[in-house]
Amino acid sequence: MGWVAAESKQAARQIHRFARELRNVRPARDGKYLQSLGMKPGPEMGRVLDALRDALLDGEVQTREQHEAFAKERLSVERRA
User: Fold this and answer.
1) How far apart are CA 75 and CA 52, in angstroms?
2) Alpha-carbon distance 9 to 30, whole Å?
3) 12 or 60, which is more confident?
4) C-alpha span between 60 and 80 (Å, rounded)
5) Rounded Cα gap, residues 51 and 34, in angstroms
């Protein structure tokens, strides 16, 4: 019900859409996949999974192959940081 307190109708629509449709969206790849690439559970894994979910919601990744490529790229970035 966060849309009730939204400052604009557009914000209210976006909040409502997220609550109704998008909050349960999950990437095609998960933490087990990242572990198979050698990543250990922890904050880094959380950042990669958050970035992957954001990319999915933003339409940047759609196919399983795109999910895998994105996850591998983010994993590389996390390892360099």
Assistant:
1) 11
2) 34
3) 60
4) 23
5) 13
CA-closest candidate to residue 58, choices 15, 19, 33, 27: 27
pLDDT tens digits, residue range 33-80? 999 988 899 998 999 998 998 898 888 998 989 989 998 888 888 777
Residues 6+ apart with CB under 8 A from 26: 53
What single string gives the DSSP state of each residue in 47-72?
Answer: HHHHHHHHHHHTTS--SHHHHHHHHH
Residue length, the chain? 81
Report d(CA 15, CA 19) in Å as an integer. Answer: 6
Q: What is the DSSP letter of 3?
A: G
The amino acid sitting at 68 is E
